[in-house]
Amino acid sequence: VQLQASGGGLVQAGGSLRLSCAASGLTLSSHTIGWFRQAPGKEREFVAAISWSDGSTYYTKSVAYRFTISKDSANNTVYLQMVSLKPEDTAVYYCAARRLAFARSMASMEPNYWGQGTQVTVSS
């Protein structure tokens, strides 16, 4: 299983970024894909998730209405569109997958698979 995250970078507060997670080696229709992040000195936290089978989504409260998670079935890729970025969004962002999970459950259940991280830095 490979989850290849990309798209991070340095952006000013109020700016936008789109992260990508290219998935391979797993049956996507049986998985939920999520994004997590870890800021320096803090624990890793859930950000957003999407169920591949029905497209349902779930977000942590701090990113709702600013971040949008979506999927591209043709390319087995999940995107995280981030707008109105804030300095507190600075973190390493990881994509992850869990079998047979509802999108909401990714917030409280350990994923089965992790990808490598991509750094997002938001300057004030």
Structure description:
The mean pLDDT is 96. The chain is built from no helices and ten strands. The chain has strands spanning 2-6, 9-12, 17-24, 31-38, 45-51, 57-59, 67-72, 77-82, 91-99, 113-123. It is globular, with a radius of gyration of 13 Å. The strands form two sheets. A six-stranded mixed beta sheet has the order 2-10-9-4-5-6, with no helix packed on it. Strands 1-3-8-7 form a four-stranded antiparallel beta sheet, with no helix packed on it. By secondary structure, the protein is an all-beta fold. Helices cover 0% and strands 54% of the residues.
Compile the SSE list and pairings:
Layout: E1 2-6, E2 9-12, E3 17-24, E4 31-38, E5 45-51, E6 57-59, E7 67-72, E8 77-82, E9 91-99, E10 113-123
| Radius of gyration from the alpha-carbon trace, in angstroms | 13 Å
Structural class category: mainly beta
General form = globular
Beta-strand portion reads: over 45%
Taking pLDDT < 50 over at least 5 consecutive residues as the criterion, the unreliable ranges are none
The total strand number stands at: 10
Q: Could you state the order of secondary-structure elements as H and E?
A: EEEEEEEEEE
Q: Short summary of the structure?
A:
With 124 residues, the protein is an all-beta fold. The chain is 0% helix and 54% strand. It contains no helices and ten strands.
Keywords:
six-stranded mixed β-sheet, four-stranded antiparallel β-sheet, 0% helix, mainly beta
